[in-house]
Amino acid sequence: MSIHSLNDYDLIKQYLGGKESSLEILINRHKNKVFSYILMVVKNRELAEDIFQDAFIKVIKSLHAGNYKEEGRFVSWVMRISHNLIIDFYRKDKHLKTVSDDETEYPLFNSSKFSDATIEENLIKEQIHQDVKDLVEKLPDEQKEVVVLRYYYGLSFKEIAEHTSVSINTALGRMRYAIINLRKLMVESKVDLVFN
User: Fold this and answer.
1) Is residue 105 in some structural domain?
2) What is the value of pTM for the model shown?
3) What is the DSSP letter of 151?
């Protein structure tokens, strides 16, 4: 059986067993899809090449660390790594388009209020929303319920108390503990929810 006809999972096993050429086949098999996705998002070939390389460096490290567990979904895993690297890049290096206003005392136009959200900003917002949802899922059920009812359904604490058959003070207390726990979870998970 030709090495080229092996599925992704078998190629990964061979690579981890010491057959370097298996990784080259994997990369060649998926490079067009992964690179095209990165380029479509960042719209800069040089940056896309850097992120593509970083993605496969991370893939290699993760494979050696035993962090790949998704049999048959290798390309989805690589795409997710690439997506996260794009978000990380824009979080660290916030690209804002500026308009020159040298003759004024104040930067009148260099404000996000005057610009549409960029693809990068939308990606970061989307990731922040997902991170928050993931953190909320880790809360105890009673705290999660209060957070969901308050922030996703817009209920008042009086309505939450009625809906959950507890006093307003209990609903407020659960929210207080939910916020404390979310802060702890953010630190433990090393999640950055800042968007400037």
Assistant:
1) no
2) 0.50
3) I
